[in-house]
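Ticket #4471: structure output looks truncated?

Reporter: J.K.
Steps to reproduce: submitted the chain below (296 residues) through the standard prediction queue, then opened the result file.
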Amino acid sequence: MGGLEVRELECFLVLADELHFGRAADRLYVSQSRVSQLLRALERRVGARLVERTSRRVRLTPLGEAFLRDLRPAYDGLAATVERARMAALGVHGRLRVGFQGAVHEGVLSAITDLQEGSGEGIRIDIVEIPLCDPFGALRRGEVDAAGVLLPVEEPGLVLGPVFSRRPQTLAVAACHPFAERASVTAEELAGTPLVSVGEPAPAYWSRAHAPGRTPGGRPIPPGVAVRTLQEGLTAIASGRGAMLLCLPTAEYNRRGDIAFVPVTGMPDSSLGLVWRQGHETPAIRSLAEALALTA
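Returned output as attached by the reporter:
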């Protein structure tokens, strides 16, 4: 096993999750050619093909499936060992880096503050902003220990803990939009209104949940522009390039004269979920999960 490169293993694990070289490259922040290079190096080391790639699909070989089953728990255990050493080196018991998409809701921030001040374990929580378009990337790369992200969460290798901060949804439209003066709009009235969506590397299922292609009754909703950040979305809205579904706290935090935020009826509430990597749960994460569960 001499010269084994951890990056090759990380590449294989991400590719096994995505089964798509482009999405794997986005998650690893490398080029597609680099993903191919790392995979070929690992396959040479193993001595056989682990992944089959055609012009239409990517899939694991039977050996690749078996390798994945053995590798994932071993890799998670190795990552957990490194994390424990990092925590010991910091000399701070229970230090957590927690990512959030955008501003942290007042109730959530209060729960985090109370946890830090009232903990006899000396828990320290550092809040990190994570990109709207990459809800899970910082977590997978180990840049944060847990993340409060907008639901849904359907990610292999990640654990979804408590769901919290359930809030009504609003429709952000330009101040000159016909909906701007309305007291509310229904979900069915979104038909025909282009919705600004969140672009890659956000998973497609996650983006569709926040910019659905149909109303609950099945009427089509045209796609709008794809953005990477909330500020890009707000700019697109203000310039009349579409509308965007946002939770009520985000709307209140980002109020501005050229955008109106109109309540939407008939849509499920927006919710956050606390997510962490499988095999990396710590007492501090459990304490945070318990505190956030009370803000639901």
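Triage note (M.O.): checked the attachment and the full token line is present. Residues 93-165+271-293 form a domain with the D-Maltodextrin-Binding Protein; domain 2 fold (CATH 3.40.190.10).
Status: closed, working as intended.
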